């Protein structure tokens, strides 16, 4: 066992990290300083050891910092768990998460039902549209048929009226201007007031005057008709006393005259049929009242009308 020497620092093989820190220049050491080269080497060595020591201290401090961070995390977690924090997404945010590959069977069935419903609605709409179109077409067709039938009925009626008019015209043309060979009464319900022959003049009172026709008394305005078919050869006012006068020429040299008329309904040269209205009974000319003076002339001579009616 070695006994330490008093008065001198014992040399130790172990070197303390603190002993490696260099002292300021000029500071006395426990031992005698080495020469300059050895001193420089010693300073570099001490610097390297100091850097290594600092690195070791940093490594040792890391778990402590982590432990502090862990404690801070624990405290933060506790605060988070004990605090009511409201998290709300933006109103306009689109939070859809489409995952077709993860769709459930119920969602697929729902999609199938919706597709089938849409197809059915489409088919129903098409059927309703077609039914409406068919109904409209049927209504239009019926309206067209009714219109056609109405037009045909009107055309048929018009054709019948034209045919009837032509028939009447043909009948009139057949008799107009031609005598039937017999004369008919020119007015209905003839009431004779003066016959054919000599008589006293009812106006002047003179005797021996020949009355060349027959007078039939009726109300003024009574229709006067042609006694037979023929041609109007005279129609106007007669100055000699006959007043408004019509003369119709018949065949075989026969004429009939209609005198004292209130009005004349035919014109000179017009052809008339037997029974056709030619004027109205009146009291014009030398007349004492409403009556018709009717004459029959055969070959230019007046004859008694009674033998012809």
Automatic annotation (TrEMBL):
<dbReference type="InterPro" id="IPR011055">
    <property type="entry name" value="Dup_hybrid_motif"/>
</dbReference>
<dbReference type="InterPro" id="IPR050570">
    <property type="entry name" value="Cell_wall_metabolism_enzyme"/>
</dbReference>
<feature type="compositionally biased region" description="Basic residues">
    <location>
        <begin position="1"/>
        <end position="11"/>
    </location>
</feature>
<feature type="domain" description="M23ase beta-sheet core">
    <location>
        <begin position="210"/>
        <end position="305"/>
    </location>
</feature>
<dbReference type="Pfam" id="PF01551">
    <property type="entry name" value="Peptidase_M23"/>
</dbReference>
<feature type="region of interest" description="Disordered">
    <location>
        <begin position="1"/>
        <end position="38"/>
    </location>
</feature>
<protein>
    <submittedName>
        <fullName>M23 family metallopeptidase</fullName>
    </submittedName>
</protein>
<dbReference type="InterPro" id="IPR016047">
    <property type="entry name" value="M23ase_b-sheet_dom"/>
</dbReference>
């Amino acid at each position: 066992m070695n006994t330490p020497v008093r008065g001198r620092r014992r040399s130790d093989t172990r070197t303390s990290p603190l002993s490696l820190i260099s002292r300021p220049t000029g500071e006395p050491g426990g031992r005698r300083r080495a020469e300059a080269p050895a001193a420089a080497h010693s300073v570099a060595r001490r610097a390297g050891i100091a850097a290594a020591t600092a690195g070791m201290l940093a490594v040792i401090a890391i778990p402590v910092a982590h432990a502090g961070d862990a404690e801070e995390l624990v405290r933060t977690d506790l605060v988070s768990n004990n605090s009511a924090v409201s998290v709300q997404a933006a109103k306009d945010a689109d939070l859809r998460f489409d995952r077709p590959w993860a769709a459930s069977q119920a969602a697929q069935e729902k999609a199938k039902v919706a597709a089938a419903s849409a197809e059915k609605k489409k088919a129903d709409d098409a059927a309703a549209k077609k039914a409406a179109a068919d109904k409209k077409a049927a209504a239009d067709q019926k309206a067209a048929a009714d219109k056609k039938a109405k037009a045909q009925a009107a055309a048929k009626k018009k054709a019948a009226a034209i045919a009837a008019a032509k028939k009447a015209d043909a009948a009139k043309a057949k008799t107009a201007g031609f005598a039937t060979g017999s004369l008919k009464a020119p007015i209905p319900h003839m009431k004779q007031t003066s016959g054919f022959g000599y008589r006293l003049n009812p106006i002047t009172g003179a005797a021996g005057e020949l009355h060349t026709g027959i007078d039939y008394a009726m109300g003024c305005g009574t229709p006067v008709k042609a006694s037979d078919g023929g041609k109007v050869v005279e129609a106007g006012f007669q100055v000699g006393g006959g007043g408004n006068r019509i003369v119709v020429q018949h065949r075989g040299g026969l004429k009939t005259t209609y005198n004292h008329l209130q009005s004349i309904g035919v014109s000179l040269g017009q052809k008339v049929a037997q029974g056709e209205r030619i004027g109205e009974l009146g009291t014009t000319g030398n007349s004492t009242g409403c009556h018709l003076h009717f004459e029959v002339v055969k070959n230019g001579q007046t004859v008694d009308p009674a033998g012809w009616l």
